[in-house]
Q: What sequence folds into this?
């Protein structure tokens, strides 16, 4: 059980301990009915006082996550909301209780949690939780034909590696594409590093530049995968709120006076989960803050390919004059999962340091998929695919917004996204979407509870739905079902933190 304590964060130690345990309970890393360490053992594991450990358990009990049985110990409640896991049940659960006392280094597993409920839908259910593109819209056949032709022409390619930085020709093509098609920063292939998706890209940055106690500022809410990565490095995470214009840089500046961040992680374009895009003014302010406090800015452009507005904003990297921005351009969401690929753009020694870190875990990704993607880019098919896909996504977004306007009950608000795949809904503050999800699964619809997207104290009255993953008929059925669920919950006031479930 991982309990990371930061004594200078300003957050009471009891709250930090309770939040660490709560995150692992909600993710399923600590399962229903599990016996938790004794208070004495917990104080030793977390290096806190006996009184602090008692207070932490009291907070968890107040939140409805645990129960304390006199003479027996402390247990995770059986009825607590935990995402269903795909692992087979053990027949020796009692014999393995001792495992809970073994210290591990698993973070809050927020990203893992997002993926656990997909298989729990009933037959013909609608999954609005998955932030990905409908597989029928991906260029699977085109890439498959290209791969077959590559293997036929050059069978030895199956034994080749793309090198630590990735295939040089592919890096050249990506650099040209970003400059010519997206008006993104002018870089050479030597400033590009290819990774197997955005997770590896963020992890490389974190393992290269972030260590225990380093301060990382990030939007709140934000991408759950990034939360887990920085948390696993032992970072002190400073949450910065988001509004319609993106990260609140005024709040960031106020934190910098006392705790300057080593890294600022941001998704300025088509933010996940909210869908907002940072204004030009705030982009300029963010770069000034990073310069003033000597911070590294990690610009995650995962969904920038799918900007659905009239015109996109220049990347932060475009205005980076001294190599302060590490730009992560993800292409994975536009391609089949076997071809997932992210390009890291970094200047100066940052690129060589990142490559050195990559060499430790991945001395060279297979070149076959890189060559297949290279061919897709060089032929111009990627640009055509992107244009066609964004027309479909805009149509589905507009359809989803129209359905919400017609069916959502009073008291439900949402942000109209100008890009990406998602719509962020805000409910009355007393509602708990973690608990609401269980009822949604019974009614045949899933969504992402907003609590998984917060790096610090979670807010429970938000949820995210994705309009990109299901066909239009399923999208309509899923949103109408969700709106009925919300109307019933609002009417009965059934869902609030610590409440017991009541049938709708």
A:
């Amino acid at each position: 059980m991982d309990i990371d304590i930061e004594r200078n964060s300003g957050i009471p130690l009891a709250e930090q301990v309770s939040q660490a345990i709560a995150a692992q309970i909600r993710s399923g890393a600590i399962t229903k009915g599990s016996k938790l360490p004794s208070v004495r053992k917990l104080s030793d594991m977390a290096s806190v006082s006996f009184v602090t450990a008692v207070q932490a358990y009291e907070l968890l009990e107040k939140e409805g996550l645990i129960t304390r049985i006199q003479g027996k110990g402390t247990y995770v409640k059986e009825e607590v909301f935990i995402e269903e896991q795909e692992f087979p049940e053990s027949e020796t659960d009692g014999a393995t209780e001792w495992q809970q006392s073994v210290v591990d280094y698993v973070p809050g597993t927020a990203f893992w949690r997002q993926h656990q409920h997909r298989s729990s839908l009933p037959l013909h259910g609608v999954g609005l939780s998955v932030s990905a593109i409908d597989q029928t819209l991906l260029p699977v056949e085109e890439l498959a034909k290209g791969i077959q032709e590559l293997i036929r022409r050059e069978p030895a390619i199956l034994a080749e590696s793309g090198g630590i930085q990735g295939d040089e020709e592919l890096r050249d093509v990506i650099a040209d594409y970003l400059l010519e098609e997206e008006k993104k920063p002018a870089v050479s292939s030597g400033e590009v590093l290819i990774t197997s998706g955005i997770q590896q890209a963020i992890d490389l940055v974190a393992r290269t530049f972030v260590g225990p106690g380093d301060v990382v500022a990030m939007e709140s809410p934000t991408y759950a995968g990034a939360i887990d990565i920085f948390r696993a490095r032992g970072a002190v995470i400073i949450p910065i709120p988001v509004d319609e214009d993106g990260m609140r840089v005024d709040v960031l500046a106020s934190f910098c006076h006392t705790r300057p961040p080593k890294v600022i992680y941001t998704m300025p374009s088509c933010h996940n989960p909210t869908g907002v895009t940072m204004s030009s003014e705030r982009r300029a302010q963010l770069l000034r803050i990073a310069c003033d406090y000597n911070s590294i800015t990690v610009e995650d452009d995962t969904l920038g390919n799918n900007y659905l507005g009239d015109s996109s904003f220049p990347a932060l990297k475009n205005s980076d004059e001294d190599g302060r921005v590490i730009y992560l351009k993800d292409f994975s969401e536009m391609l089949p999962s076997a071809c997932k690929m992210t390009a890291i753009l970094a200047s100066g020694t940052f690129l060589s340091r990142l490559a050195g870190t990559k060499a430790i875990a991945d001395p060279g990704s297979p070149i076959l998929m890189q060559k297949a993607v290279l061919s897709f880019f060089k032929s111009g098919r990627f640009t055509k695919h992107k244009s066609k896909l964004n027309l479909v996504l805009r149509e589905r977004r507009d359809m989803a917004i129209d359905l919400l306007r017609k069916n959502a009950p009073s008291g439900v608000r949402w942000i109209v996204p100008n890009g990406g795949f998602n719509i962020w809904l805000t409910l009355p503050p007393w509602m708990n979407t973690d608990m609401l999800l269980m009822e949604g699964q019974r009614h045949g619809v899933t969504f992402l509870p907003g609590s998984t997207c917060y790096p610090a104290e979670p807010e429970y009255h938000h949820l995210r739905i994705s309009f990109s993953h299901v066909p239009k008929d399923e999208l309509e059925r899923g949103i109408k079902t969700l709106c009925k669920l919300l109307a019933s919950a609002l009417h009965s006031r059934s869902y609030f933190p610590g409440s017991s479930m009541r049938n709708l």
